[in-house]
Amino acid sequence: MKPESIGIVANLQRADAESVLGRLETRAAERGLALLADPDTAACMAAAESVPAGDLARRADVLFAMGGDGTVLYAARLLCGSDTPILGLNLGSLGFLTTVGEEAVEQAVDALCEGACTIEERAALACELEVPGDDEPARARALNDVVVGWGASSSIVSLDLSVDGEHIATFMCDGLIVSTPTGSTGHSLSAGGPILYPGSPVFAINVICPHTLSSRPLVIPDRSTISIRVGESAKPLVLSIDGRDHPGDITPGCTLHVRRAKCGVRFVHLEEYSYFKLLSQKLHWRGSSI
């Protein structure tokens, strides 16, 4: 791809944000690229056009998410199914989604202009929450995961899990995670879930602190529909979508349906990108010594 414009969203709380934005401006000008940024980011730049964040997907050829993995998740929400690709540029240590370091911002611009990069599509989740008494379900998308659980007290909850209409089990637990391959290195991993290769056509289902020793994570085809019904609960629950709480309480009788979204999220990778190298760095894999 050879873009004519770059959209930018940045976490301006990062210490080096403004200096990296300045370097990006300089290289973009050298390459004849237009820069578009959300209003807060544009205020820190000399030449970027200020654009409402929701319009970046429509106006930009590629979207730079500058910050950490949370900034990339924010960018993915802005895209809302658009095919505009994201390049995650980390202002700090490398993340699972921000795979380009801040020292390589010029290299990233050059690679885009010269076609020295690849585009990878990651699966996303489409969620529908049915609430008793509501005429229409609430809908949302997630790149990483959706989590049902927690709430205002430490009391356990009862969650009924079904896949494609077949009841699997009722879990007394603290919550339940459904993750994409992209999200498998997030909350699910910390709860004992498996690492899924990004291109795998599967989802992971992971129970949080189940009151049984026999519960294990499930890996199912991503063509399946996962349903989670809230059973007995002494408290309203929380529905978390990519780490953000869905407004409103999740109460007994509510049912969450999760399936693969029709449109995923596209990512730009530089030629030297390696998923397994990234895993080794982030998880400090050293292998075994005898």
Automatic annotation (TrEMBL):
GO terms for biological process: NAD+ metabolic process; NADP+ biosynthetic process. Its cofactor is a divalent metal cation. The keyword Transferase applies. GO terms for molecular function: ATP binding; metal ion binding; NAD binding; NAD+ kinase activity. It is found in: Cytoplasm. NAD(+) binds at residues 69-70, 144-145, 174, 185-190. Involved in the regulation of the intracellular balance of NAD and NADP, and is a key enzyme in the biosynthesis of NADP. Catalyzes specifically the phosphorylation on 2'-hydroxyl of the adenosine moiety of NAD to yield NADP. Belongs to the NAD kinase family. GO terms for cellular component: cytoplasm. The keyword Zinc-finger does not apply. It comes from the Bacteria. This is NAD kinase.
